[in-house]
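Deliverable D4.2, example record:
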Amino acid sequence: MRLRSPWQPRLSEGAGPPGERLAAALSQDILSGALEVGARLPAQRDLAWRLGIGLGTVTKAYAVLERRGLLRSVRGSGSFVAATEARKGPLIDLSRNAPPSGVSERLLARTLAAVSRRLDADVFNAYPPVAGHARYRNEMARWFRRLGMEADPQCLLLAGGAQHALAVALSTLCGPGGTLLVEAQTYPGVLTLARHMGLRVLAVAMDAEGMLPDALDEALDGLRSEGGIAVYLTPTMQNPTTGSMGRTRREAIVAVCRARDAMLVEDDVYTLAPEAEFPPLAGLAPERVVYINSLSKTLNPSLRVGGLVVPPALVARTEAALHASGLMISPLGCVVMEQWVLDGTAEAIGTAIREEAQRRRALAGAILGRAMRDARHVGYHVWLPLQAGRAAALETAARALGILVTPPASTAAAPGTPADEASCGVRLCLGAPALDELETALRAIAGLVENLGAGAPPPVLA
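Output generated by the structure prediction step:
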């Protein structure tokens, strides 16, 4: 006699198709631990009858969950929860911006088994072309197209993740003694990289959408540099402030760069789906934008395969910079990327990550309320606008409670300046911790913000 499933059938809230809502409801309960590993799921025919939906709809939802590695089917016995619980450590780390986990041990084992059946020994026995094998560049271009970026594989170069791609882009565009213009609050990694390379960093004022075109124009007016000049932007789900530039702002930024003959570096790692209102800068100005993206933010942190899309005139220079910084990227990573894109696993993981990111963002909003800045897009981090002193105090107090947040000084392009004070705050990264740990940390942070007497967000980023 079979045991009954402990799951109470439901569809997630929303107006989507029943199959997507069923998959989302089951994903939520599995990832939250409400359904334990090994728990039986309802028989498909019984579930379809109880929810009043088609049997085929249930079958497709179960298939999606199995591709994500969240359930396993045993012939003659049924379907069971296959996800594993996250490990817990002494500290809750909200400082590292990683996507929620979307890959289980079962999925990894299935991927490696599939890869082993179609390995090409020649890929592992020789150095690849500097820009990467054409077959993998084509697959990366296909993945970029899914995100709304049309890329010519001939102008797409593979790198060892987005950070490596960014280093190559700055080396190509700025070179020794160059100048990099960034928003007043920006990605800590680009600041570390620019300073390591000896570049001059200029902070440009920003608002809720990001860099201000007039401020950029003023900064570029008469600017002299020993090397090249480039502008770095994360136009969608800006890191760290979560702002997104609308089409009008993007067009204005491009117009300034054209008028001032400045090159742009577009870091697009937080775009999870294409939207006409938020086109890639590279689509608006392909002749002066180096576009960067990777698989580590959209699929898995360990899949260190990134790509740069460069103007045709820059391909040779970029290849030279790429060759100087690393002879090749991991062929195994490329093989996994190819397998996932071809068999639909990439799509399934991407959907799962988006759903979990939305869930975590909603949790943060419910706990932090007005202390958290609202955002147009869903990503893996949120922003707490705070005056500089309060931001530093929050970091110190959180660390005393065993919670790591992004140090405010690490995101400030020009600490201590009026632009920094107007845009200062604290970034909280939501993707990596287990859900119960995340909730514990967010409730503690909410208490600290209240104790610090934080008021409304600063006017520039309100």
